[in-house]
Amino acid sequence: MIISAREANQQFSRLLEAAANGETVTITRRGVPVAKLVPVVERPQETDADRRRKARQEEILALFDKGFQGRTFEDWTREELYDRETDRRETSECG
Questions:
Q1: What's the chain's Rg over C-alpha atoms?
Q2: What is the pLDDT of residue 84?
Q3: Which residue in 7, 64, 67, 85 has the most C-beta neighbors within 10 A?
Q4: For residues 18 and 27, what is the distance between their CA atoms, to the nearest angstrom?
Q5: Paired residues of 36 in beta bridges
Q6: Is residue 54 located within the same domain as residue 30?
Q7: Mean pLDDT for the stretch of residues 57-79
Q8: Half-sphere exposure for 65 (CA within 13 Å, toward CB)
Q9: Secondary structure (3-state) at 66
Q10: 64 phi/psi in degrees, rounded to 5
């Protein structure tokens, strides 16, 4: 949308609403563009915790895709489950 400075002054609330809805408004003075009113696009910042969570989800999905190679949860001993958890923790602490 292109609008003159005078019209922009008179219709500022409407222009803010247009920008909030994603529209870019160009404001002119004597027919020459002098300013733009643009929507604010905020991208959420991905944190380290988000990246770790995503990586862990991918690991888990890969395990599901691979399967348990014929084993059920009942086939795993407590020690096997604990050792695997310990190994993962040691690996993540080193890197």
A1: 28
A2: 55
A3: 7
A4: 13
A5: 26
A6: no
A7: 75
A8: 6
A9: helix
A10: -65, -40
Closest CA to 30 of 11, 10, 12, 7: 7
15-52 burial, b if ≥16 CB within 10 A, otherwise e?
Answer: beebbeeeeebebbeeeeeeeebeeeeeeeeeeeeeee
In a shared domain, residues 27 and 52: no
pLDDT at 87 exceeding the cut of 60: no
Nearest in space to 77 (alpha carbons), one of 88, 66, 65, 85 = 85
pLDDT tier for residue 82 given thresholds of 50, 70 and 90: confident
- Pair 89, 54 in one domain: yes
- pLDDT number for residue 88: 52
**Pick the residue with more confidence: 91 or 34?**
34
Alpha carbon distance 36, 25 (integer Å) = 6
What residues form DSSP beta bridges with 27?
Answer: 3, 35
- pLDDT tens digits for 13-33? 999 999 888 899 999 999 999
Domain holding 7, by residue range, is 2-37
Residue 30 lies in a domain: yes
